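Archive entry. Fields below.
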Amino acid sequence: MRDVIRLGVILLLICGVAAAVLAYVNDITEDRIAAQKALEEEHALQSVLASAKDFRDETGKMKSYLTGPDSSIVRGIYVGYSGGKPVGVAVRVAPAGYGGPIESIVGISSDGVVQGVTVISQQETPGLGANVASPDFEGRFKGKVAGSPVKLTKDGGDIQGLTGATISSRAVAKGVEAALRTFQLMLSKGVLAK
Amino acid sequence: MSVFSDFKNGLGNENPTFRLLIGMCPVLATSLAVTNGIGMGIAATFVLVGSNVIVSLLRSFIPPKIRIPCFVVVIASFVTIVDLVMAAFTPGLHKVLGIFIPLIVVNCIILARAEAFASKNPVVNSLADGLGMGLGFTLALTLLSAIRELLGTGTILAAPDFGFPGIHIFNKDFAPVMMLLPPGAFITLGLLIGLINTLTRRKA
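PREDICTED_STRUCTURE:
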């Protein structure tokens, strides 16, 4: 019995020291990590909607309007401004791919045209589905307009899917479509003045 | 054993990947590209050296009965510290290695060396052992990645995160994608271990 208490105290001591050290490290790195994340996000938004100078997060305002599958695909909604005027939106979407959600950001100008798509994280098969993150594939969505379907050639649309990675390609198309629907919803709710 | 032979041990005779056959999971999963291999290797080496030193320092304090939970606490703390510090101060590198760092916790090389070596040897020897094992792991991972990357993509040393397209050797269309998938990892690793066994058997 005495032994159990002794061992317990030693283990408690070691865990206590470890926790203290971790708390200290977390304390000195927390703010820097948050700043880095914000910067990274800003870069990603800027890359899909180059005409915007700054972005305002409207996710909270819009989230309740989203219905059906879109409410789970759409993760973030940002309105891009330039000189105080809205120039478009950037929608963060996470459609289900082959190996997990394919997180991407879709930039749409205020006239409803896709300006750019960038995949920020994915767990697709290397060499096949992982190629959705290539600029070549991302570029295939440029110029798609709100109101018309975004589909692969296989599904009767006009986007060339990746060989051997139909599920991944289809997922990205689904994400872009959800983003365009969100854009139309924002117009109709007056969140984005035309 | 001398400090130097402790260091050399991990590179050759007791190479964790080719000889001890431990830590196979990260080897199979991350050996897709040379940059991945080197990155994972360096991150693991860092944690290995750190945890070996701490475990060795605490070796007379930790009671044998609860040594495993103590080692796990030390290793997990080290991995978390590395993860946080890298995220805060070297975000570029963290982006490349980010997915590998949590994997190090479950890399059994670290626990195996804490148990088999650091808990029984002085600090300097444990440091040498950690460094040797880590570099041995890095070398093995780099070799395996080089073969898989070359055969699977026709390019070598591609580092998209650093803006380097890699050295193009042959057309991608002729590259068997299987090399990048799990079977490619198992086949390459198996053949490499067989080759190394054959070469070393002759010497003995």
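CURATOR_NOTE: The mean pLDDT of chain B is 86.
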